[in-house]
Write a structure and sequence with these properties.
Keywords: Molybdenum, Oxidoreductase. This is Aldehyde oxidase and xanthine dehydrogenase, a/b hammerhead domain. InterPro entries: Ald_Oxase/Xan_DH_a/b (IPR000674), Ald_Oxase/Xan_DH_a/b_sf (IPR036856), Ald_Oxase/xanthine_DH-like (IPR016208), AldOxase/xan_DH_MoCoBD1 (IPR008274), AldOxase/xan_DH_Mopterin-bd_sf (IPR037165). GO terms for molecular function: iron ion binding; oxidoreductase activity. It is a single chain. The protein is an alpha+beta fold and 529 residues long. The chain has two domains: 194 residues, Aldehyde oxidase/xanthine dehydrogenase, a/b hammerhead (Aldehyde Oxidoreductase, domain 3, Alpha-Beta Complex), CATH 3.90.1170; 215 residues, Aldehyde Oxidoreductase, domain 4 (2-Layer Sandwich). Helices cover 21% and strands 19% of the residues. It is built from 13 helices and 15 strands. Helix 6 packs across helix 7.
């Protein structure tokens, strides 16, 4: 077991972890209340230039021509950056761990797929001069049909949002267009249930609205490296992403994080660092790139919209016997982290309740909306909201107290989850009991005596016979993205599709998932605790 050296780190960690009820001072509190905390934008470097981006006014359009002649003559302009200047102009964050395909350009080169997509960047002596030059760029667009609804995007004949995924759905394990969960026989259970209820829940995108907007400053260092001051929430993800996009070794960069002026998940994507660094590389001077408030609100990635259908079968005594889930995550125009959110969502079904028959289909769908990203429990939060709304409706349907209804159906230690794993260290019953006590909510004595440690397992631990879906044919081509640096096509043209190799016999299954996503605790069952 790995432990900290207590002789060295005695003042860093108290293994007793007795903090509840104590007024422990945060390490950064004094800096915050005195206004002396250092943020990335507090670094004012000598000779610093400023980068601003021209963004698409269309949700979906083909780029016919970009005319920068007038902008090049604009006062203070030091460099205009096009997609052709980006060494590797396709990326997606999770391709660093071989989960998904590169699908998002740093600067659009053939099409724009959402309103606000970056098309061109201008580096100038001042923010105002950069803004004025951006306004002088003329782009000839050919507007294309767009789709903004997840279910419309899946219909035959819908506009293709992202050619990397021509069916408008993310592809899992090379062949599946969604994540699925099968446990028992829900249709048979619905037929035997006393009540069946189906409801639709729709969540809107949510902007994180941090006080500090996304931004970074990149500067050439004296040793041939580049120092980057950034507000990122994911320092090493951002460093490796920049190394990949700019096609240089990762030790080329020295990333410096620090205080983040509000993140909540909205600063996980690497949005400003690649262009700031590229600007510094092309000009030899420090470059600052920070979102304005309108950019942050309109074009910064939100929590994705989610549409959830829940169908439940329940008996008169309050036992839920079947739950069927169909859900759609609106990824926007590119993948970002939505594919992972779907995996988290399915791993959470059917909520903290013992239900003997569970069926789930969850899709990551591409639309012509701003790409979505992480936000405080994304992938779980919205599903929890829908499930708990459904629980209240079910309790009302069978005439039970909503808290007692939850106690009746809650996981107990030893129960079998729909993912075929034994429930351990469950505590929903005790949490509901304490909440009821604090709220002075009356519970009947039999429910007050319930415990997560009693009455679990046994028949509740059985794995029911489950009808499996027919497996789709596996694609002949390898669809996972490697991190090998291969020669890239010219960025002004759409990258050609590789010629599929001849089909080969499938290789033996590896011991660990080959896409590397095992580092995420809820993706393939590995748990950090």
């Amino acid at each position: 077991m790995l432990e900290l050296r207590k002789d060295i780190f005695a003042d860093e960690r108290d293994d007793n972890l007795k903090e509840i009820g104590k007024g422990t001072q945060r390490q950064d509190m004094l800096g915050h209340v005195t206004g002396t905390s250092t943020y990335f934008n507090d670094h004012q470097l000598q000779g610093m230039l400023h980068l601003k981006v021209l963004r698409s006014p269309h949700a979906h359009a083909r780029i016919r021509r970009i005319d920068t002649a007038e902008a090049e003559r604009s006062p203070g302009v030091r460099r205009i950056i096009r997609g052709a200047d980006v060494p590797r102009n396709l990326n997606t964050l999770l391709s660093l761990i071989n989960f998904g395909k590169d699908d998002e350009p740093t600067l659009a080169f053939d099409k724009v797929r959402y309103k606000g997509e970056p098309v061109l960047a201008i580096v100038a002596d001042s923010p105002r001069e950069a803004f004025e030059a951006v306004a002088k760029v003329h782009v000839d667009y050919e507007p294309l049909p767009a789709v903004f609804d997840v279910e419309e995007a899946l219909k035959a004949g819908a506009p293709v949002v992202n050619e990397t995924y021509p069916k408008n759905t993310f592809t899992y394990h090379d062949i599946y267009d969604h994540q699925k969960l099968r446990f028992g026989d829900v249709e048979r259970a619905f037929a035997s249930a006393d009540h069946v209820i189906e409801q639709r829940y729709q969540m809107s995108p949510i902007e994180h609205a941090p006080t500090e907007t996304n931004g970074s400053i990149a500067a050439p260092d004296t040793n041939g490296r580049y120092v980057v001051y950034t507000s990122t929430q994911a320092l090493f993800f951002s460093l490796d992403t920049c190394a990949k996009i700019l096609d240089v070794p990762s030790n080329t960069f020295h990333f410096i994080g620090g205080t983040v002026g509000g993140g909540f998940g909205g600063k996980v994507d690497t949005l400003t660092e690649p262009l700031a660094i590229l600007g510094a590389m092309l000009t030899g001077r420090p470059v600052r790139y920070i979102f304005g408030r309108e950019e942050e609100m309109q074009y910064g990635p939100p929590r994705g919209a989610e549409r959830i259908y829940l169908k439940d079968g329940v008996m008169r005594d309050g036992r839920i016997v079947a739950r069927k889930v169909r859900a759609y995550f609106d990824s926007g125009a590119y993948t970002r982290l939505s594919s992972y959110a779907v995996v988290k969502c399915v791993a959470h079904l059917p909520g903290p309740y013992t239900i003997p028959n569970v069926y789930g289909d969850v899709y990551c769908v591409f639309t012509n909306r701003t790409p979505a990203t992480a936000m405080r429990g994304f992938g779980v939060t919205a599903m929890d909201f829908a499930i708990e709304c459904q629980m209240d409706k079910l309790a009302h349907l069978v005439g039970m107290d909503p808290m007692e209804f939850r106690l009746l159906n809650a996981y107990r230690d030893g129960d079998m989850k729909a993912h075929r794993r034994e429930a351990k260290n469950t505590a929903l019953i005790e949490c509901v009991q304490v909440a009821a006590e604090k709220a002075k909510w009356p519970l009947r004595e039999e429910f007050k005596r319930m415990s997560s440690r009693k009455d679990g397992g046994g028949a509740r631990a059985a794995i029911p016979a489950t009808t499996k879906d027919a497996a789709p044919a596996r694609a002949a081509t390898q669809q996972r993205t490697s991190y090998d640096r291969l020669p890239q096509p010219a960025a002004h043209a759409q990258p050609p599709q590789p010629t599929p190799p001849a089909p080969v016999a499938p290789a033996p299954a590896p011991q660990q998932p080959s896409h590397g996503a095992i580092r995420f605790s809820s993706v393939f069952g590995s748990r950090r605790r």
